[in-house]
Design brief:
By secondary structure, the chain is an alpha+beta fold. It is built from 15 helices and 12 strands. Keywords: DNA damage, DNA repair, SOS mutagenesis, SOS response.
């Protein structure tokens, strides 16, 4: 049996964990630079607050319903997510964190022990709520796609109560008949529109199609989805948790950048974030894409990007920062107000199978290991490059930022008795 546990309105729910004063009020969370609504709590959903809408367009509606507005507090979200995942991991043989708010669970040695998966799902929900105060939905199925469908049913279908199980044909049909095509994992909006031209309307319609005919028309991914919806395991654990082939760090700036050195600091900070993510998945960077642009709404819109090839794939932040220094003169335009910039590792290699070069000196991995260990022990940013900025004037705008209750000493909650 496979399971999927997913938080309900994750970011908005996390905002309520350490602030009881807003626990029973509608809450929305905004994206970077307070641009769009990216998370809505269940109470706000009932008020008809739209998701993914620009904040300035719905500001009047939020004020009308006295909705609590929060900026994205990524430090807090990451910490609460780690605690939630630790609780979920206790209930299965193996757990894989698929995203910040959802985790797959594999049950191998539990099959003969658990008699009622529905009851077991509620045990998981109660444990997560008791220890983290996070509401979650739990779904079980014999394949990863069915587990994903069950999780969707646990939170979205009219008769849902937080747990759903697909363990026979009746439950499979009952749930898939109520799911739209683009609600199925692996079927996006555009692909759903193409499938609808064949007369398909629900997930159950898709499950009844011939897998081979689906492969001929739409490729192997849709074929696997159809097989998985019928209980045939096609996606393995390794398919879900395979390393990323590209890693990017980009951001719009709270204040426009007009200075050469400020742009270098911003790009270097993005490069460091990319290197940290690359090391976590034991990869090395072969090609680096560096770009910067003004706003598309400006009278003069300029976007420039440069590709940098490393002679030997690396995860060394010093080498990556040096690459930015080498190309920045060709990227920078005097007097241009830069609105957005970023760095992307677009060609990654495995650290375990790297082909060395006879004529290039090999890197010392102990240096980067020491760098990572110091920042892990004393906090991110404890050890920085000289070309990074400690005071980010170009950092994103977060006017509604809540305290970082669990990750900053000055923000620890105070209780007055």
């Amino acid at each position: 049996m496979q399971g999927l546990t997913d938080a309900s309105g994750c970011f908005a729910s996390i905002e309520k964990v350490n602030d009881p004063s807003i626990r029973f009020r509608p809450v929305v969370v905004l994206s970077n630079n307070d641009g769009c609504i990216v998370a809505i709590c269940p109470i706000a959903k009932k008020l008809g607050i739209p998701k993914f809408q620009p904040y300035f367009k719905v500001k009047w509606l939020l004020q009308k319903h006295k909705v609590v507005i929060r900026s994205s507090n990524y430090e807090l979200y990451g910490d609460i997510s780690d605690k939630m995942m630790a609780v979920i991991a206790r209930f299965s043989d193996n757990t894989y964190q698929y995203s910040i708010d959802e985790a797959f669970s594999k049950f191998v040695n539990y099959e003969g022990i658990i008699k009622d998966w529905y009851k077991y799902g509620h045990e998981i929900r109660r444990a997560v709520w008791r220890e983290t105060r996070m509401p979650v939905g739990v779904g079980f199925g014999h394949t990863l796609t069915l587990a994903k469908a069950a999780n969707h049913a646990s939170k979205k279908l009219p008769d849902s109560d937080g747990v759903a199980v697909i363990d026979d044909d009746y439950s499979r049909k009952h749930i898939l008949e109520q799911m739209k095509l683009d609600d199925i994992w692996g079927i996006g909006r555009k692909l759903g529109q193409k499938l609808s031209l064949l007369g398909l309307k629900t997930g159950y319609d898709l499950a009844n199609r011939s897998p081979k005919s689906m492969r001929q028309q739409f490729g192997v991914t849709v074929e696997r989805t159809v097989e998985e919806l019928n209980g045939v395991k096609c996606l393995s654990w390794d398919d879900v948790k395979s390393p990323k082939k590209e890693i990017f760090s980009t951001r719009s700036h709270g204040q426009r950048i007009v200075n050469y050195h400020d742009l270098r600091k911003a790009l270097t900070s993005h490069a460091v974030k990319v290197c940290n993510k690359v090391r976590l998945q034991h990869s090395l960077i072969k090609k680096l894409y560096i770009f910067a642009s003004s706003s598309p709404h400006d009278e003069r819109y300029v976007k420039k990007g440069i590709m940098y090839d490393f002679p030997l794939a690396t995860d060394n932040v010093c080498f990556v920062a040096s690459a930015i220094e080498q190309v920045l003169h060709a990227l920078y335009v005097e007097g241009l107000p830069y609105y957005r910039c970023g760095v992307g590792a677009i060609e990654l290699e495995s650290r375990d199978f790297q082909q060395q070069d006879l004529f290039l000196s090999r890197e010392n991995p102990a240096l980067m290991n020491c760098y990572s260990q110091i920042n892990q022990k004393f906090g991110r940013g404890s050890l920085q490059l000289g070309s990074e900025s400690r005071q980010e004037k170009w950092a994103m705008r977060r006017e509604f930022l809540s305290p970082r209750w669990t990750t900053r000493w000055s923000d620890i909650p105070k209780i007055f008795c």
